[in-house]
Amino acid sequence: MLDYSDFISGALDMVTSITSFGRSGVSDWLIQRASAIVLVIYTLFIFGFLWLHPDLTFQEWQAFFANSAVKIFSLLALVSLCAHAWIGLWSVTTDYLTTRLMGPKGTGIRLAVQSVCALVTFIYFVWGVQILWGF
Fold this sequence. Notes:
Oligomer: single chain
CATH superfamily: Fumarate reductase/succinate dehydrogenase, transmembrane subunit
Number of domains: 1
Order of helices and strands: HHHHHH
Number of helices: 6
Helix content: over 70%
Mean pLDDT: 87
Largest sheet: none
CATH class: Mainly Alpha
Shape: elongated
CATH architecture: Up-down Bundle
Distance between the termini: 65 Å
Number of strands: 0
């Protein structure tokens, strides 16, 4: 009788990619769903504040974001946005920028696009932290 356990475990090892954020599909799925929930709550929070302050002035807006709790919640939303975007972009690039669809240069193109996406995501994250915390 054939033992398929080595074959299955080897096949599962091939699925894990070094460019994946959560190291597995389930982890990435959970991170993306949790980050989406954080982003929805943050959006409702900001819209709620704007709805309660229809004649908002710059000083009120600045005081709102000077609050440490708002800064921390905004930072959590920023981290969630970056994680959510990276997982989504990684999924799209690994699905559509393949050697089967793009020819022999598909892997190089995919890695180049993923590198640009990672760099842009990092730049936006650092920029967001600078805006939030005034560095």
